[in-house]
């Protein structure tokens, strides 16, 4: 039976193990950056289309990374909340120079 993660602290090492390919990691960071920009644009411009675009942008970049570079199934399918948290934590670690881009 597959392991079930109960906490994000348990999940994050698994998340990182699913993102070892440098191109995939970069696609995740670029996608998450565009999501953040889209959310800011939605708030500043008061335009709901930026909100609608955010998940398409984020998942689009991430899934290209998984399917074409990592050759694995995105954790989003099994752990959607933890996976989203992982995307933002990885993004934060990269933009604050705690993790290599």
Largest sheet: none
Helix content: over 70%
Shape: globular
Distance between the termini: 34 Å
**Number of H/I helices:** 4
The overall number of domains is: 1
> What's the Cα radius of gyration?
14 Å
The H/E string reads HHHH
Low-confidence runs: none
> Based on helices, strands and strand pairing, what is the structural class?
mainly alpha
Q: Give the beta-strand count.
A: 0
Main features:
mainly alpha, 4 helices, 72% helix, 101 residues
Describe this protein's structure:
- It is a single chain.
- This protein has 101 residues and is an all-alpha fold.
- The protein has one domain.
- Helix content is 72%, strand content 0%.
- α1 packs across α4, α2 runs antiparallel to α3 and α2 crosses α4.
- It is globular and about 45 Å long.
Write the layout of secondary structure elements.
Blueprint: H1 8-17, H2 22-45, H3 48-70, H4 80-95
Short account of what is shown:
With 101 residues, the protein is mostly helical. It has one domain.
């Amino acid at each position: 039976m597959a392991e079930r993660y109960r906490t994000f602290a348990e999940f994050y090492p698994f998340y990182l193990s699913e993102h070892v390919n440098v191109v995939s990691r970069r696609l995740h960071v670029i996608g998450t950056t565009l999501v953040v920009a889209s959310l800011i644009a939605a708030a500043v411009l008061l335009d709901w289309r930026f909100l609608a675009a955010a998940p398409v942008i984020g998942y689009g970049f991430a899934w290209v990374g998984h399917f074409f570079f990592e050759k694995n199934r995105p954790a989003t399918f099994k752990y959607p909340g933890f996976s989203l948290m992982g995307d933002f934590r990885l993004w934060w670690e990269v933009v604050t120079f705690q993790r290599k881009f």
